[in-house]
């Protein structure tokens, strides 16, 4: 690292600390927008963000991917050098039953060192951080020998059709590296994600009078219960993990053992299976003729959607039931960015720089928008503030200090990547 880069980073990190109240106010304000998806309406929060960025002298492009689904793109720095993308989504999952919240989910309350509200951890804390970081770098007039692109997308929580892939398909964002401010642990950004295979099982039976069951009619719910037991056997399906990803999987197991529940350490090498929804029947005294089950499987390296669906069909064929399987929703294979890639080095090194502790990247057992960037040849990782137990839960929150820490990493990593790291 050159002395000039060191000075720029130190000044930027100190500026985040000096303006921390502005950052927390921004995050609090974002939490007050009920940008639940569904239904999905990013117009109000997008208008606010455009005004915020314009005060720093940053112009914003608006791209409507669907009704009230706005993608915002802003740029600072000098075109012609490397390009770094900072990405975040404005949508949040629905707040659900308000009576189960200890506070208003859209209050944005700051209390006892915490920011409270739906999306605090997923991911308005991180979104505020990247927006603040880009704004601050612009205001500090730091001359970046490259371009920092801010991509704010409206649609991630329902699959992202109108967000990241929409931008990439149209060539509206391109880059040599990308950071998504999705939630992570403080010292461990996620360098890779498992794949996903969602499918809907429809079991068909034959209606009849409930008083004659089980001698009359064919109960679709009962047959679906048998099918579910067979589907869950996918957990035991052997998977051959490729040699090149075994090191990062071992590091991820170490992380789980030290920081999470160790029962999850096998998840990186197995196909997980969640029976998410089940619906069937019309009345208790009618033999149900239809039952549908929605299943979410996550795929390790070495497993594909065909592996899962072929196994499930083999299992169900043995039951002699009438069924159909239809894939839907998330479909992807496991993907990752190597730890030695410049974007990974820039972020990991600067987590250590800001915290003084050793940082390292790990695998994530879920899926994310990162897969879309990798599909377009853009190396990517995820790092953002989070109180992990509260994500998609009632009483979601995030620590103020975590939001500030991540913003410091964002400004330092941008300077490092664009000034020092080679593409």
TrEMBL record:
Superkingdom of the organism of origin: Bacteria
Catalysed reaction, written as an equation: N-succinyl-(2S,6S)-2,6-diaminopimelate + H2O = (2S,6S)-2,6-diaminopimelate + succinate
All copies of domain Peptidase M20 dimerisation, residue ranges: 192-323
One Pfam family of this chain: M20_dimer
Entry keyword annotation includes Plastid: no
SUPFAM superfamilies found in the cross-reference section: Bacterial exopeptidase dimerisation domain, Zn-dependent exopeptidases
Cofactor field: Co(2+); Zn(2+)
UniProt-recorded name of the protein: Probable succinyl-diaminopimelate desuccinylase
């Amino acid at each position: 690292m050159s002395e000039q880069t060191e000075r720029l980073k130190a000044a930027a990190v100190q500026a985040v600390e000096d303006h921390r109240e502005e950052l927390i106010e921004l995050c609090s304000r974002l939490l007050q927008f009920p940008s639940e998806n569904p239904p999905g309406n990013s117009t109000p929060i997008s208008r606010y963000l455009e005004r915020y960025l314009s005060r720093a002298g940053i112009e914003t492009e608006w791209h409507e991917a669907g009704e009230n689904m706005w993608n915002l793109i802003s740029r600072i720095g000098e075109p012609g050098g490397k390009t770094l993308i900072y990405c975040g989504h404005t949508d949040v999952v629905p707040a659900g039953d308000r009576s189960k919240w200890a506070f208003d989910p859209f209050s944005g309350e700051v209390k006892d060192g915490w920011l409270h509200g739906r999306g605090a951890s997923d991911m308005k804390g991180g979104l505020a951080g990247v927006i603040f970081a880009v704004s601050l770098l612009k205001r500090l007039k730091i001359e970046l020998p490259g371009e920092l692109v801010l991509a704010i997308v409206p649609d991630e929580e329902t699959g992202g059709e109108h967000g990241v892939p929409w931008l990439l398909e149209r060539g509206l964002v391109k880059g040599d590296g990308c950071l998504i401010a999705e939630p992570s642990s403080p010292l461990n950004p996620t360098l890779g994600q498992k794949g996903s295979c969602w499918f809907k099982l429809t079991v068909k039976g034959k209606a009849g009078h409930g008083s004659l069951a089980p001698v009359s009619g064919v109960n679709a719910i009962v047959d679906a219960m048998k099918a579910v037991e067979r589907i869950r056997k996918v957990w035991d399906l052997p998977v051959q993990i490729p040699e090149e990803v075994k090191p990062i999987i071992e590091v991820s197991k170490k992380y789980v053992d030290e920081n999470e529940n160790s029962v999850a350490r096998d998840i990186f090498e197995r196909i997980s299976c969640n029976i998410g929804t089940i619906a069937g029947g019309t009345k208790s005294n009618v033999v149900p003729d239809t039952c549908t089950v929605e299943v979410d499987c996550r795929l390790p390296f070495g497993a594909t959607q065909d592996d899962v669906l072929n196994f499930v069909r083999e299992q169900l064929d043995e039951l002699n039931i009438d069924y159909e399987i239809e894939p839907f929703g998330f479909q992807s294979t496991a993907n990752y960015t190597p730890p030695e890639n410049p974007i990974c080095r820039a972020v990991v090194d600067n987590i250590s720089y800001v915290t003084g502790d050793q940082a390292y990247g790990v695998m994530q057992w879920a899926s994310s928008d990162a897969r879309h960037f990798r599909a377009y040849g853009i190396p990517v990782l995820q790092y953002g503030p989070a109180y992990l137990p509260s994500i998609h839960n009632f009483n979601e929150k995030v620590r103020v200090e975590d939001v500030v820490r991540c913003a410091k990493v964002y400004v330092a990593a941008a300077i490092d990547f664009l000034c020092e790291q080679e593409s």
